[in-house]
Design a protein that fits this description.
39% of the residues lie in helices and 14% in strands. By secondary structure, it is of the alpha/beta class. The chain folds into two domains: 134 residues, Aspartate Aminotransferase, domain 1, CATH 3.90.1150; 240 residues, Type I PLP-dependent aspartate aminotransferase-like (Major domain) (Aspartate Aminotransferase, domain 2), CATH 3.40.640.10. A seven-stranded mixed sheet has the order 2-8-7-6-5-3-4, with helices on both faces. The chain has a three-stranded antiparallel sheet with strand order 9-10-12. Strands 1-11 form a two-stranded parallel sheet. Helix 8 packs parallel to helix 12 and helix 9 packs across helix 12.
């Protein structure tokens, strides 16, 4: 039996999406910038995909830009916001951001002040601390909507209201790579300036992402080329990927409520079964509404997470020790930030769910995690 539970790293492409990708490669292979009919045909398909991507977050079609992925979207947004800085300025983020935000902010440490807002032991942003960090020199605040390792959902309504009440000129960027298509987002009601998302987290192809830029915002480009995507992300478009992404967006939009409920039920069932059947366990993800429906972070005492990952893969079960982008790091910055007990840190794994997972897999997975944990503990003794 094969059970893939690493959907926060990447997802299996759905068959409907694959059909669209193949169709574009076979029949609509023209350059969308070309003036002839084939160019117009694929340009129309890109626009249809843009409309589909916009629908997921209730944005205007013209506010959506296609990129090469979530990392690129975060970089384009942050560098675009910070094109005119002064040493007296400051920027604010959390300690639990994805590397594509954290490393960009660290890049600016010698140019202006970088401030980190506190979070609690579940990863929730401390609103009082955030309010104290904001002043008249704050240029940008970047907050991850759903943390990719522990799955906490930040209250963006409260955060954005607090920020704009303190200083209306502050720009707000949101890394929504793990929430796009999983959590209801309405940018018409949410006061954010830019928002990044990705295709391969929602069963679309890799190498495609998106960036929402609020109408009227003049974001300075960091890439120069032929003017595609209104010069925000110039370069010949990945047309098969974009059209496939559009199909994935349509599928997510049409099945949103049902799929969201299924993922949450699976997550809670895994948490319940693992807690009941294994001693020395800690659930690091919220099981309430402020926990993403698809991410369950679990720690086991006297177990090494990477060893458990390899034990499970021998049984055809695929989980991770955390973010794929940080898998080779010696220390887990996220677990440090939530002050996870040192007895549990080394034995942490992430179970992340997707469209293809089912309740029929639970018995097999829980039984093999239990057997593996017990085996590892015997060896470590």
């Amino acid at each position: 039996m094969e059970v893939y539970l690493d959907n926060s790293a990447t997802t299996k492409v759905r068959s409907e999406v694959l059909k669209q990708i193949v169709d574009v490669n076979e029949n609509y292979y023209g350059n969308p910038s070309s003036l002839h009919r084939m160019g117009l045909q694929i340009e129309n398909k890109i626009q249809a995909a843009r409309k589909s991507a916009a629908k997921v977050i209730n944005a205007k079609t013209e506010e959506m830009y296609f990129t090469g992925g979530g990392t690129e979207s975060n970089n384009i947004a942050i560098f675009g916001h910070l094109n005119n800085i002064d040493a007296k300025n400051n920027i604010i983020t959390t300690k639990i951001e994805h590397p594509s935000v954290n490393n960009v902010f660290n890049n600016f440490k010698d140019k202006l002040e970088v401030r980190f807002v506190k979070s609690d032991n579940m990863g929730r942003v401390d609103l009082e601390d955030l309010a104290e960090l904001i002043d008249e020199n704050t240029l940008l605040i970047s907050i991850m909507h759903v943390n990719n390792e522990i799955g906490i959902v930040q209250d963006l309504d409260k955060i954005t209201k607090l920020v704009k009440d303190k200083n209306k000129s502050i720009k707000i960027h949101v890394d929504a790579v793990q929430s796009y298509g999983k959590i209801k987002i309405d940018v018409l009601k949410l006061n954010v300036d830019t928002l990044a998302f990705s295709s391969h987290k929602i069963h679309g192809p890799k190498g495609v992402g998106g960036l929402y830029i609020r109408s009227g915002l003049n974001l300075k480009s960091m890439i120069f080329g032929g003017g595609q995507e209104k010069s925000i992300r110039p370069g010949t478009e990945n047309t098969p990927g974009i059209v496939g992404f559009g199909e994935a967006c349509d599928l997510v939009y049409s099945d949103f409520k049902q799929e969201n409920q299924k993922l949450r039920e699976l997550k809670n069932l895994y948490a319940k079964r693992l807690t009941e059947e294994i001693d020395g366990i800690k659930i690091n993800s919220s099981l309430d509404e402020d926990g993403a429906p698809h991410i369950l972070n679990v720690s086991f005492k006297k177990v090494r997470g990477e060893v458990l990952v390899h034990y499970l893969e021998q049984k055809g079960i695929y989980v991770s020790t955390g973010s794929a982008c940080s898998s080779k790091a010696r220390n887990n910055r996220i677990l440090d930030a939530i002050n996870l007990d040192s007895d549990f840190v080394d034995g942490t794994i992430r179970i992340s769910l997707g469209f293809f997972n089912s309740i029929e897999e639970v018995d097999y997975v829980v039984e093999n995690i239990k057997l593996s944990v017990n085996d590892i503990r015997k060896i470590m003794k």
